[in-house]
Amino acid sequence: MKVYYASATSMTEPSKTDFLIKKHILKHQSLLNGTTRSFFETQKQNIDKADCVIVEVTNPSIDIGGIAVYALTKGIPT
Fold first, then answer.
1. What is the tens place of the pLDDT at every residue in 14-24?
2. Predicted local confidence at residue 49, as pLDDT
3. N or C: where does the chain have the smaller number of CB atoms within 10 Å of the terminal CB?
4. Is the pLDDT assigned to residue 72 strictly greater than 90?
5. What is the distance, to the nearest Å, from the Cα of residue 52 to the centroid of all Cα atoms in its chain?
6. Alpha helices of 1-78 — where are they, by DSSP H?
7. For residue 32, what is the enclosing H or E element?
8. Packed helices 62-73 and 39-49: angle between N→C axes, nearest 10 degrees
């Protein structure tokens, strides 16, 4: 199963929840990472490859909302 995980970036330390989720996903080697192209284009391609999308919304942002909406419009469980 391929999982796309997204959380808002900030100048603060990552939340404990964020850390635990990333640790679990990496343990199961299911994380799809963005690369150098246009940020949103890369995200869209990775979301399209995913079986499900997890968005961590403790610190919501427009980017995170856009990821969730894109995945939902593609019919990917979010």
1. 667 766 766 66
2. 92
3. N
4. yes
5. 10
6. 16-27, 39-49, 62-73
7. none
8. 40
Q: What is the pLDDT of residues 20-68, one digit of tens each?
A: 766 666 665 544 554 445 667 778 888 999 999 988 887 778 888 888 9
Burial of 35 (0-12, 13-18, 19+ CB in 10 A): exposed
d(CA 78, CA 72): 7
pLDDT for the residue 30: 47
CB neighbour burial string for 36-67, b if at least 16 within 10 angstroms, e if fewer: eeeeeeebbebbeebeebbbbeeeeeebbeeb
Question: Side chain identity at 45, as an amino acid letter?
Answer: Q
Q: Which tokens go with 61?
A: 């942002």
As a whole number of Å, the CA-based R_g of the chain is 12
